[in-house]
Amino acid sequence: MRQAPLFLLGLALLSAGCQGTAHGRRTFRDDAVRDDCAPVRPRGVAATPPAPPRPDPGRIEGTPSIRVIWEALYVERQQVLNPRTGRAGVQGIAGAPDLEVAILNSSFTGTPDQIAENRGMRRQGGLTKVDDQDMLDFLKSIRKAGFYEYAKPTGAIAGLFPSERSRGRITIETDGESVTLLSQRGLGLSDETKEIPSIYSEAKRAIQVLRNRSRTLEVTGTRVSGHAPTAAPSEPTPTKPPPKR
Using DSSP, how many helices (H) and how many strands (E) does the chain show? Predict the structure, then answer.
């Protein structure tokens, strides 16, 4: 005759496990509670599949994953952060206080390290995204300027970034391969490196143009390929005076 009370006690303990005790504490770990007490989907009812991501209108099939980074190093940081020692009017690439900017193309698929770095730059406002075609046009322009003739594998020169001679760096990462153009004081004094400062400056300006395009995309949320110029207002057609009677 004691089996009924024991059975009821077991039901009470099971109910407490799913609902918690009177003091709000749970008798099981949270993950176990979710496993044991989660509602069961009826048989024959399929799970609702997640909505597929919307296609990116700026993506071109076959375009590699590209990330462009500009970073102000010691010399440019001093010019931006310490106006008493820097040249007047020197600002970040798109205006102070930017000291590092990353631009991704629509086909960008980051590695775990890239994604972690992107999160940090996004919080600082230094991360933007552009259409594949805009990125390809940018790479074409800096190649024409001679960027790739002087860029070095990033890992080989990364140890020079903290140097007090370093102005800034521009890094191009394409499908896992990374090259960097590093601008430093004194490069203009050697015939082998005298072209680097001007190439760096030209590439830096091109990055600013590229980033300004991405700002338009961020504000509107759609691709803006250029607006037709507004036509000047036409002059009113003069009215003829009424004939004299």
Answer: 8, 6
